[in-house]
């Protein structure tokens, strides 16, 4: 057989030097298979990505996502700056801790990145993708000209995501009753800040995630992260790696930057129209005129989910053939769904595509079913089986 | 560190063979290979009675991450396949040299075994890869 790349895991010494999160030693002690991911040495899995996937769906597990980029924005113009920079409108978040999912667009309406912005007690916090971190910072600094804002990259922070039906209960059991009570009543996309033992070094606990399950993303000082990680482990929370994170987000139908969207793809083409805040006609934002023009033109393609109930695994980049359409579609993310036991994918296909298509697999064409992205939520299948299945 | 038992012979393409005597070998993939693939989700085996030549495609393996062909390390006739792998492909990850065997061949030319690698030679080949 042929050894797949790039995750073959040898020749480590010659690759140097990838960055490591403050949890690197803990990952090694927990038996992680470490891979290079966008300049970071990150855990791919700790033995079995499928077991880790099931663990999140049925119980809960923890992910180190400290490689993600955190930028705090302060200054008297912070609000007006972000109202211009982001396609969603930070005017919607008025209370500290509230979060908002948004794209950051270029002038052509393409996505520079997707992110979550939180209102802080003072200013705002952006959590951005790791792969795009440097580009994002350059972009944000460029647009900061003329605004009274200070951008601070918080590489002193770590992020631990605890995801799964038992996530809130497990975290509650170790953070003390006051915080525990607060996170039990947290609404999705909101967060709380709690003082830790050190003054001015607060933790942020947000009811967000990237798995389709309940859970928290906890932004905390790097110096606190390892102790907390082991406390979670002792409370019965097993670690999960990037591989499980990817199959979980794919089952949940969630986009991954660089796959479902990039600088050439607008949020309109990535099922993210809901993240574009048009209501305030007075508000200009980067990419607005390009999006309006695209709306007038109407969609050429759509982002859909694919099911392959036969054998084989759909892969990124495979061609999707639609009967009656000259233009084929393409798989943007394909993998195996551990929950369903067969392959699923996200694909961008011509807008005319109906319920069925064919995908050129490794050796033959296979029929796939098209449906709305989103296969599994809270452990349950969210699409209806077809009548003849 | 991957496990590479001394008593087996190896192909550069990451299949192992175990000489079971009377001209029969069992075939599977190495620990290094299963570890590189990650969780296996589908397996395609040859049919009993198939005749294969050394280095011929003799099946396929697909993990969450990647798909790959399986090659016959030596020539011969398939006399048994491991049917348990169909429903439980994870056996390959759990026990690549034991319960995770793929098929057995009745060799047509047992001298071909001489062309396969020893454990040390195989380890060396994976280090170069």
Element layout with pairings:
The complex is a heterodimer of chains A (389) and B (129).
Chain A: H1 12-15, E1 19-20, H2 24-29, E2 33-37, E3 40-45, H3 49-58, E4 61-64, E5 69-74, H4 78-85, E6 99-105, E7 111-119, E8 124-128, H5 133-143, E9 150-153, E10 157-163, H6 167-175, H7 177-184, E11 191-195, E12 202-206, E13 215-221, H8 222-234, E14 238-239, H9 242-251, H10 288-297, E15 301-308, E16 319-321, E17 329-337, E18 342-350, E19 356-360, E20 365-371, E21 376-377, E22 380-381
Parallel strand pairs in A: 1-3, 4-14
Antiparallel strand pairs in A: 2-3, 4-10, 5-8, 5-9, 6-7, 7-8, 10-13, 11-12, 12-13, 15-18, 15-20, 16-17, 16-19, 17-18, 19-20, 21-22
Chain B: E1 9-10, E2 15-21, E3 24-29, H1 31-37, E4 40-44, E5 51-52, E6 57-63, E7 67-71, E8 76-81, H2 84-87, H3 91-94, E9 103-107, H4 119-128
Antiparallel strand pairs in B: 1-2, 2-3, 3-9, 4-6, 5-8, 6-7, 8-9
User: Compute the gyration radius of chain A: what is it?
Assistant: 21 Å
* The named CATH superfamily of chain B: RNA polymerase II/Efflux pump adaptor protein, barrel-sandwich hybrid domain
The overall average pLDDT of chain B, rounded, is 95
Helical residue percent band of chain A: 10-25%
Q: Please write the string of helix (H) and strand (E) elements of chain B.
A: EEEHEEEEEHHEH
Give the strand line-up of the largest sheet of chain B.
1-2-3-9-8-5
CA radius of gyration of chain B is 13 Å
Number of helices of chain B: 4
Strand-residue proportion of chain B: 25-35%
Beta-strand fraction estimate of chain A: 25-35%
| CATH architecture assignment name of chain B | Beta Barrel
In the CATH scheme, the class of the domain at 12-66 and 156-250 in chain A would be Alpha Beta
Largest interface: A-B, 24 and 31 residues
The total beta strand count of chain B reads: 9
Q: What structural class do you assign from the helix and strand content of chain A?
A: alpha+beta
